[in-house]
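Project outcomes to date are best conveyed with an example. Our students and postdoctoral researchers have been running inverse folding experiments weekly, and each run begins with a structure described purely in tokens. The record below, which covers 149 residues, was selected by the lab manager from last quarter's runs and is presented without edits.
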């Protein structure tokens, strides 16, 4: 499963409609849950304090974004389909979906990256070692000016 941070902003007309009917929220949740399920997705449930507080992954926000949510999908195709379906609505001014990774997984990925750097002696310009600096006169095959390439 893949996680996505959704940041969405509504048009003024969409806000007018929501303010006129704020109690329609339960119906909106049901329709949203149905669309997510049709795409193999769901809202993320976020637990804090050892599970003392659980928040369903949708928040109202202040500033540029009106709504922030964390969603879970099987993959990028389903997430993109969701983004297209929501973005097609005239009341949505802007929507961004960013793939995110739980910290437990990110720590494993960081170790994988560190191992890859160590095994390859990789360093980009500005790094501690100069593996990126070719020895005098050496060029890489397939590059402009490469010898024998």
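After processing, the design step wrote out the following sequence:
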């Amino acid at each position: 499963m893949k996680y996505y941070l959704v940041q969405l902003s509504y048009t003024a007309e969409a806000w007018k409609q929501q303010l006129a009917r704020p109690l329609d929220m339960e119906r909106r949740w049901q329709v949203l849950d149905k669309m997510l399920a049709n795409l193999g997705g769901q809202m993320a449930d976020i637990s804090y304090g050892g599970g003392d507080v659980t928040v369903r992954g949708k928040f109202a926000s202040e500033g540029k974004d009106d709504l922030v949510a964390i969603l879970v999908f099987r993959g990028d195709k389903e997430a993109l389909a969701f983004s297209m379906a929501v973005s097609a609505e005239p009341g949505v001014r802007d929507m961004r979906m960013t793939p995110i990774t739980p910290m437990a997984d990110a720590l494993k990925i960081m170790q994988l990256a560190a191992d890859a750097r160590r095994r390859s002696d990789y360093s980009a310009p500005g790094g501690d070692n100069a593996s990126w600096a070719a020895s005098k006169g050496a060029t890489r095959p397939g590059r402009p000016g490469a010898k024998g390439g």
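The domain at 2-101 is CATH 3.30.70 (Alpha-Beta Plaits). The chain has a mean pLDDT of 85. The training component of this project remains on track.
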